[in-house]
Amino acid sequence: MLSGAPREKVKLIKQDGTLIEISEVFFGNGTALIEDVTIQIEEEDYIIRSLPNGLQENYIVTDNGYFGGSGGIPPHYQLKLKKTKETPTNIRQNIVNVKKDGIVTMREKLLKLINEIPKIELKFWHFDPPKGMIVPSGDYIYDNYEFVQWLEEVKFLLQDVYDRTHDQYVWGLINPTGIIHKFDGKHYDEREHFQKLKSSLNVIAQNIDKYYNDNNKGDLTMKKPMLFISHASKDLKYVQPLVELFADIGLNNETMFCSSVPGYHIPLDNDLYDYLKGLFDNYDLHVVFALSKNYYKSPAALNEMGASWMLKNRYSSILLPRFNFSKIKGAVNPYQISLKLDNKNVDELKVRLGELKDILAEEFNLSVPPIRWEKKRDAFISTINELIAEGD
Fold first, then answer.
1. Listing from the earlier edge strand, what are the strands of the sheet with 283-291?
2. If you average pLDDT over residues 70-92, what whole number do you get?
């Protein structure tokens, strides 16, 4: 209908939290024309528009302007829009906490999905390999359509919970190595993973008020993510290659802080404690604890650990050379899987580094080509081994 006009892609967020991407949109002054009338667009839905300069505009639909078609003009929407300063995070929180005219809230959706577990569990099927095939038998569910649909909805709702609360229990389920990603047909018995997922979802259902509390919405502004390297200054020789590895995958001085490494440190004339407090207050931190004997002797490092524990920041633990798992103490969970730099099993070290890379790539929206990663990872391991050989 407007073949010569520039077309844009936008995101439509429905009042129940459903997100729909629309690729053919024509923007005017306070209006947007959409030719695809198979999409349900209603008043008080939200339109998220990404601009070429990287900024984002958010609109509320005040009138869907549906036209049924006449005189050769096909049916279409001519939306009337009102610009809003709300961010997608604000919008999602409002959807969660407001129920209008019988609309199902995201809280109710999650509870409904959890209640469907017994029905979904019936979709398992058993595989017995033919004689001569060296593949173990097992129970599978990964390729059942109803399960796939159910699992995707669970992922979406748990991601929403995590985006609002940064809850570590939920993150343990949805991170790239979490249990929710284990259903891929590559594990010989998926029933064990399903039992763990079922137990976790039941725990969430029993504590649902913790995740959807109308009376305690908290700070709804979206904080920028930052990787915070918590370490002892005496361990700089091991920490610097680590910072360089993270820089190689795409982090920079706006997304990574390390007080001992030039370029990622505290700027001149800033107060040490005020600057660190500002980082914890104003950024969505993922803290990497570089644990060592020196770390536990450093008051500054232990203060960072305590602050991270109080604020419930996400964290990963990296054990520096000559420091063992049995020595982990304080606010760091000794049972959380950690990465040990002087691991004798090089293949396991490569896998653990890859898992950490995947977690950071997802959090910071990074794209790391596999060949580049393997080259940088292997160079990092070689550097660490050379430093170990030099001794302390």
1. 256-257, 224-230, 283-291, 314-319, 339-340
2. 74
